[in-house]
Amino acid sequence: MNAKEISVWLLRIILLIILYVPIWMSGTLLVTHLDLDMPSEPGVVGSGMGILILSAVNTLLIVGLILFSNLRGIRLAISLAIAYYGVFTFLTQIETWYFLGEINVSKELLLELFLMGLPVPFLFIPLAVLLCKRWKTQEKIIINNSFNLPMSKLIHKIFILALVYVVIYWLAGYFIAWQNPQLREFYGSPGELTPFWEHTMYTLRDDPGLFILQLMRGALFTLIAFSIIRNSITKTWFTALLVGFFLAVPHFGHILSNPLMPLASVRLSHMIETASSTFVYGIIIVLVLHRIRNGVKGL
């Protein structure tokens, strides 16, 4: 890239960040059942700076996913929009339903939270594809054959990976988030920390649905990640980082104040827990699904 090309790309990214903010914020107009006057501790950064940081991070992530995909045009826009909505909204809000449905999230608000996530994937991503000059279909599509797997093998690996996700989720949840006494109290378990195995057996006995939910989330995370992986045109290690960040970035939203999770320490514990565990899981997905034909040289 010469200086002119770099300048053009910088201008494109700045323009995309500027476009991202109002498109992202437009989703909040659909939320009418949230009491904004509910007390909430300040976020890690101020709301203005937080919105700017999240807009920049999300824009760079989306641009990276666009540029390193072999898809073009409407196929790229639709596949990335579905993947983005799945990770950033669907798989996030089903946890909101499970954990906060009996605390402070009504059915009406939950539906609005699902709708709030629509503008970015289905308005911003097509615009980003267009501005990144990836709308025209190329004559020859580059196919990354190293990620092609037989269906039976793919299903088997998705199941194994979903089990791995449950383990990572549970370990991170206990050893990071659950160590915070304010977080335990927020979810209705005040008092001293229960030992790991006792806590695990208690949850398996009294709340087995949690593990079923996380097994389903792990399988869907893997399927969504596979849609990114199989169309990747970059090195496996870079694809792993890209997928890792793709799964982790949704949790950066905890830097903002949130009346649904009013305690700052609870949001911070959750951010560290979920961002780190999903990042690691994203990398594991790529390494497991990648067919390493020449040992480490395949990376």
Count up the helices: 11
Largest sheet features: none
Mean pLDDT: 89
Distance between the termini: 25 Å
Stretches with pLDDT under 50, minimum 5 residues: none
Order of helices and strands: HHHHHHHHHHH
Structural class by secondary-structure content: mainly alpha
Instruction: Report Rg.
Output: 20 Å
* Structure summary, number of beta strands: 0
User: How much strand?
Assistant: under 5%
Task: Bin the helical content.
Answer: 55-70%
Outline = globular
How many independent structural domains?
1
How would the blueprint of this fold be written?
Layout: H1 3-26, H2 47-67, H3 73-100, H4 107-116, H5 119-131, H6 151-175, H7 181-186, H8 196-206, H9 208-229, H10 236-248, H11 264-289
Helix pairs in contact: 1-2, 1-5, 3-4, 3-5, 3-9, 6-9, 6-11, 8-9, 9-10, 9-11, 10-11
Name a few traits of the molecule.
single chain, 299 residues, mainly alpha, 0% strand, globular
Write up what this structure looks like:
The protein has helices at 3-26, 47-67, 73-100, 107-116, 119-131, 151-175, 181-186, 196-206, 208-229, 236-248, 264-289. It is an all-alpha fold. The chain has one domain.
Task: Describe the structure in brief.
The protein is mostly helical. It has helices spanning 3-26, 47-67, 73-100, 107-116, 119-131, 151-175, 181-186, 196-206, 208-229, 236-248, 264-289.
